[in-house]
């Protein structure tokens, strides 16, 4: 019976954001535009950081990694959605769905981890400026990023292996525009107790711990800023944190919004942190950061014909 269920569920149905056929061209154009802007914006950040030696610092090393993760993050969900809209289909294969769940967990988790590492970087820069280059050396920066990849790789792999043990009924419908773990567990035909327990543990690991680390870092930063006597020094220190704080607020604010909305509205709310946030991150860092704006200007001027 279980084998039959697996065979019958070789295809899932993604219900998407709307079943109204008149809205499909609008959704296709909107999400294609957001996807292209997101990929192009984050790619420009990576190229600007890699091509400008003045940006070869820990902060911009982490920023370029965040941009890479954001490109992969948005590419995990949006292309399949666009293909389905264009083909007027809702199908996604069993293997394709599990693959989407796996990579979505990896890149969503990496976003949170990198934002935490970047908060620690700002903490060291502001609270221990004289020892910054000693503490945040190249070896530690690479080690922190590799450690994040290692942890999230194994967490996502365990989730995937646990999902493989579940059975699904024929014609399983997923009320979302991509295969999201909690939605998959809701439509499973077998017991999901172990999956739910592990999901709770990893939510603490990937959500609560990173957010707690960010809050602790910024509490120390605020305490250090309060002790500064120079108004100019306070402004300079705060401006160095402004972009990161904006991205953190956007990412965690929209992620929290998904879990506070009703199940019916969760797919719409998910658009904010899966598509809109990766699209806005390059604008936040380029508009609020003079160094990034300068590097982008030099990069674009070198690429312009006749310059």
UniProtKB/TrEMBL annotation:
Membrane topology: Multi-pass membrane protein
Stored Pfam families: 7tm_4
Keyword Cell membrane attached: yes
Coarse class of the protein's main subcellular location: membrane
Keywords: Cell membrane, G-protein coupled receptor, Membrane, Olfaction, Receptor, Sensory transduction, Transducer, Transmembrane, Transmembrane helix
Keyword Manganese: no
GO MF term set: G protein-coupled receptor activity; olfactory receptor activity
Annotated signal sequence range: none
Domain G-protein coupled receptors family 1 profile, first and last residues per copy: 41-285
Source taxon at top rank: Eukaryota
Database matches in InterPro entries: GPCR_Rhodpsn (IPR000276), GPCR_Rhodpsn_7TM (IPR017452), Olfact_rcpt (IPR000725)
GO cellular component, one term: plasma membrane
Record function comment: Putative odorant or sperm cell receptor.
PANTHER family attached to this UniProt entry: OLFACTORY RECEPTOR
Name under which the protein is recorded: Olfactory receptor
Biological source species: Catagonus wagneri
